[in-house]
C-alpha cells in the first residue's frame, strides 16, 4: 500500500516538475550588455548597438551566463561560508498554489564583431540556449514528508498547467548602420537574422487538473486533461529514450533595434588632419543621453521532432491499480491517450527592450533598462520572459569597467549585483550582492567569459589645436592647420607673424603689415603721419609744405607761391579793394567787386577820352597821326591804363567832301592807325576794336567849314 501511495505522489510531483514555462530568457550577462565596450555581446539586447562601436573588432572566444530563480524557497548564502549543509537546513519556504522555479543557461560561442567604417558594422555569432522552468506549481505538495496518509481523505487542485523545456542553438548575422548624423542628433539602426537549430523540447498544456482521494473506498478520482510533448522516444510502456538530438527542428528568427544619441558637444569630438579634412573620434563616447528600443527573438522553431500526446485524466479507480515510477509511465499505465500527433512548433520568447543611458562624464554612466515580454505565458510551447526593470550605475573605460545593477525581477523581487570587465575577461552577476548580503535569496545568476577586444584608437590632440597628434607637425605646440599644426614664426620679433609680415626680417608695426614706416620725402615725418608723404613739409602742417611762408600750407593756399592773408586763403590784395589779386582783374588798382576789382569808366571819363580823341590830328587826306598829337595819345593811354579791364571801340569819322567810298576807307584807316598806336604803347589788343563809319555819323552840318571840321574826328567809346 505504501508503494501505491508513493506512485501517486510521484505522479503529482512529476506533473509539477514537468510543468515548465520559458519565463526567463533574455536576462543574460546582466550589467555587461550596457557597457559600451562589450562589443559583440551588445547585439543580444539591441542589434543597433554595434554601429559606431568603440571597438574596431571584437572576438568572443567563449562566454556563459546562467540564472536560477524561484519563489518557493529562499536561502541565506552567507551560511555557506560557515557550513555548506546549513544552507538547506536554514532555508525558508513559501509554498503557494502557483510557485515557480526557473533555470536559464546562455552560452556565447565563437563570435566576431567588425566595424566596417564610420557608418556600418557587422557581426556574426554562435550561441547555445537552454531553459528549464516550473511555473504555477502547487508548492504545498512539496511540504508533505513521506507522501500521503492512506487513512485520510485528501484533495489536490492543480487546475491549469503549462510550460516548456527548450534547448537550441543559434547562428546569427547582424548588420547595423548610422541612419542620421546631424550635429547633436544621432540615430542608428540594426537588424539580426538568425538560423535556429533545435536540440530538445518538452512542454505541457493541461487544464482542470485535480485529484480527490476517498479513504473509505480507497478510490482516487482525477479530472482534467493534459497535452504532453517532448522530443524523446516513448515506447508503449511510457519509457522515454534520448531526448536531446542535434537535429531537432529548424527555425528562423530576427532582432531589430534603434538607438538615438543626443550629442550636444559633438564638435569637440571632431578633429582635423593637416590637410584640413575632418575626422571623428571613434574611440570616445560622444553622447550625453542615449535612448534605445529593440524587439528580440521574433521567430519560431519549426518541425520539432517530437510527439504531442493528449491524455484524458477524467477517471475514478482504486489506488491499488496505480502504477508507474515516472510521469510518462504513470500516464500510459493509468489514463486513456486520446491522440498522438506531431509536436507543436516552438515560439521564441519575443521581448521588448528599452534603454536610457545618461553620461555623467566621460567615465561614469547611469543606465535605466526595461525588459518586457511580448508573448503570453499560457500559450502552449511559447517562450516568455520575466519582466525586469533595472538601474545600473557604472564606470567604464577602454580596458576596465565596473557596474552594479539594481533591479526588480518579476516574481522574484529585488536584485543587486556587480560585474567587472578587465581587458579580455568579463564576469559578474545581476544578483550576487543581494544573494550574499540578503537572508532570503530566491534567485542567483552568474556569467563569465573571455574575448579578444581590438579598440578604436582615440584621437589625441595634445596641444588642443584641433589637429590630431599623428597628423600634427608640431604636436606639442598649438598651430593652425594652414601651417600643418605648427605656430607661425615671427622672425623679426615685431609681434607680426611671418605669414602676415611684409618685412619678415625687419621689425615693424602691425598697422604697416610688419614693415617699418618710411619717410619718403625725408622731412623727418613718417609717411603714416605725413599728409604729404612725397613732398617735404613742416611738422605743424603734418608734413605738408608752405612755399610762400604765409602760415597757410600749400594744399589750402590759393596762392601757394605768393604770401597772403588767412582771410584771403593765402592770397594778397595789393590794391586793398577786398578782392584778392588772383580774382582781381585790376590787382594794382582798386575797383568794385561787381567789376572784378577794376574801376568803372564813368561818363566823365568817357567824355575826357573823346575830348582827347577829337584833337588827334592827321595829315591831310591821310591816316598818319601828326607828331603834335603824340601828347594827346599819351593822355589817352594813361586813361585806358586806369581801367585795365574796360574794352573800347576806336571809331573813325569823316566829313562829306569826296566820295563816300573814299571817306569810308579813310575813316577805317584812321581808326586802325589810332588802335595800332595804342597797342604799340602797351594797351592789350583784346581791349580794342577799330571801326570806320565814314560820313555816316556827322556831329554837325557838312555845309559849313566849322561843321565839316567837327565831323572829321576819332572817338574812343566804352564797349558795354
UniProtKB/TrEMBL annotation:
PROSITE patterns: OMPA_2. Keywords: Cell outer membrane, Membrane, Signal. The keyword Membrane applies. Residues 605-720 form the OmpA-like domain. It is found in: Cell outer membrane. CDD domains: OmpA_C-like. Pfam families: DUF5723, OmpA, TSP_3. SUPFAM superfamilies: OmpA-like (SSF103088), TSP type-3 repeat (SSF103647). Signal peptide: none annotated. This is DUF5723 family protein.
Amino acid at each position: 500500500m505504501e508503494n501505491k501511495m508513493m506512485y501517486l505522489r510521484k505522479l503529482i510531483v512529476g506533473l509539477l516538475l514537468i510543468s515548465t514555462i520559458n519565463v526567463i530568457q533574455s536576462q543574460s550577462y546582466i550589467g555587461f550588455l550596457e557597457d559600451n565596450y562589450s562589443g559583440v555581446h551588445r547585439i543580444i539586447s539591441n542589434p543597433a548597438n554595434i554601429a559606431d562601436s568603440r571597438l574596431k573588432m571584437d572576438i568572443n572566444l567563449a562566454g556563459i551566463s546562467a540564472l536560477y530563480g524561484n519563489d518557493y524557497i529562499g536561502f541565506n548564502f552567507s551560511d555557506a561560508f560557515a557550513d555548506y549543509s546549513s544552507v538547506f537546513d536554514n532555508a525558508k519556504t513559501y509554498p503557494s498554489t502557483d510557485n515557480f522555479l526557473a533555470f536559464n543557461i546562455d552560452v556565447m560561442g565563437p563570435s566576431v564583431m567588425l566595424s566596417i567604417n564610420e557608418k556600418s558594422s557587422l557581426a556574426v555569432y554562435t550561441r547555445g540556449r537552454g531553459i528549464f522552468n516550473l511555473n504555477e506549481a502547487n508548492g504545498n505538495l512539496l511540504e508533505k514528508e513521506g507522501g500521503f496518509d492512506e487513512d485520510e481523505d485528501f484533495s489536490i487542485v492543480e487546475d491549469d498547467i503549462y510550460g516548456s523545456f527548450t534547448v537550441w542553438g543559434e547562428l546569427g548575422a547582424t548588420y547595423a548602420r548610422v541612419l542620421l548624423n546631424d550635429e547633436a542628433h544621432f540615430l542608428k539602426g540594426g537588424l539580426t537574422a538568425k538560423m535556429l537549430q533545435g536540440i530538445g523540447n518538452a512542454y505541457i498544456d493541461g487544464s482542470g487538473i485535480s485529484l480527490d482521494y476517498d479513504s473509505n473506498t480507497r478510490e482516487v478520482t482525477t479530472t482534467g486533461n493534459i497535452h504532453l510533448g517532448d522530443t524523446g522516444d516513448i515506447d508503449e510502456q511510457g519509457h522515454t529514450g534520448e531526448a536531446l538530438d542535434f537535429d531537432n527542428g529548424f527555425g528562423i528568427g530576427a532582432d531589430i533595434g534603434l538607438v538615438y544619441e543626443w550629442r550636444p558637444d559633438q564638435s569637440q569630438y571632431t578633429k582635423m588632419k593637416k590637410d584640413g579634412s575632418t575626422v571623428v573620434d571613434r574611440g570616445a563616447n560622444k553622447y550625453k543621453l542615449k535612448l534605445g528600443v529593440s524587439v528580440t527573438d521574433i521567430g519560431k522553431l519549426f518541425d520539432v521532432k517530437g510527439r504531442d500526446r493528449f491524455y484524458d485524466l477524467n477517471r475514478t479507480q482504486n489506488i491499488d491499480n496505480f502504477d508507474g515510477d515516472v510521469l510518462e509511465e504513470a500516464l500510459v499505465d493509468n489514463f486513456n491517450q486520446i491522440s498522438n500527433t506531431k509536436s507543436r512548433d516552438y515560439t521564441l520568447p519575443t521581448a521588448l527592450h528599452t534603454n536610457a543611458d545618461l553620461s555623467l562624464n566621460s567615465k561614469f554612466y547611469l543606465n535605466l533598462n526595461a525588459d518586457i515580454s511580448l508573448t503570453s505565458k499560457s500559450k502552449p510551447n511559447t517562450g516568455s520572459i520575466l519582466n525586469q526593470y533595472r538601474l545600473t550605475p557604472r564606470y567604464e573605460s577602454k580596458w576596465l569597467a565596473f557596474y552594479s545593477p539594481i533591479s526588480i525581477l518579476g516574481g522574484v523581487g529585488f536584485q543587486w549585483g556587480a560585474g567587472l570587465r578587465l581587458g579580455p575577461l568579463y564576469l559578474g552577476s545581476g544578483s550576487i550582492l543581494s544573494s550574499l548580503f540578503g537572508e532570503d535569496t530566491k534567485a542567483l545568476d552568474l556569467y563569465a567569459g573571455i574575448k579578444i577586444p581590438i579598440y578604436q584608437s582615440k584621437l589625441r590632440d595634445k596641444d588642443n589645436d584641433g589637429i590630431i597628434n599623428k597628423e600634427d607637425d608640431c604636436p606639442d605646440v598649438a598651430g593652425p592647420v594652414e601651417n600643418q599644426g605648427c605656430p607661425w614664426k615671427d622672425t623679426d620679433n615685431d609681434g607680426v607673424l611671418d605669414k602676415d609680415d611684409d618685412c619678415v626680417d625687419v621689425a615693424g608695426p602691425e598697422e604697416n603689415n610688419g614693415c617699418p614706416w618710411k619717410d619718403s620725402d625725408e622731412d623727418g615725418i613718417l609717411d603714416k603721419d605725413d599728409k604729404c608723404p612725397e613732398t617735404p613739409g613742416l611738422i605743424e602742417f603734418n608734413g605738408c609744405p608752405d612755399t610762400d611762408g604765409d602760415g597757410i600750407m600749400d594744399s589750402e593756399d590759393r596762392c601757394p607761391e605768393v604770401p597772403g592773408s588767412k582771410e584771403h586763403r593765402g592770397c594778397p590784395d595789393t590794391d586793398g579793394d577786398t578782392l584778392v589779386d588772383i580774382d582781381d582783374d585790376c590787382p594794382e588798382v582798386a575797383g568794385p567787386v561787381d567789376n572784378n576789382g577794376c574801376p568803372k569808366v564813368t561818363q566823365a571819363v568817357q567824355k575826357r577820352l573823346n575830348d582827347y580823341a577829337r584833337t588827334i590830328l592827321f595829315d591831310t587826306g591821310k591816316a598818319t597821326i601828326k607828331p603834335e598829337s603824340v601828347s594827346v595819345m599819351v593822355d589817352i593811354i594813361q586813361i585806358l591804363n586806369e581801367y585795365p579791364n574796360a574794352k573800347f571801340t576806336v571809331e573813325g569819322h569823316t566829313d562829306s567832301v569826296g566820295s563816300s567810298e573814299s571817306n569810308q576807307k579813310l575813316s577805317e584807316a584812321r581808326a586802325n592807325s589810332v588802335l595800332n598806336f595804342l597797342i604799340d604803347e602797351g594797351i592789350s589788343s583784346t581791349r580794342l576794336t577799330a571801326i570806320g563809319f565814314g560820313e555816316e555819323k556827322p556831329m554837325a552840318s557838312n555845309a559849313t567849314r566849322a561843321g565839316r571840321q567837327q565831323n572829321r574826328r576819332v572817338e574812343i567809346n566804352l564797349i558795354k
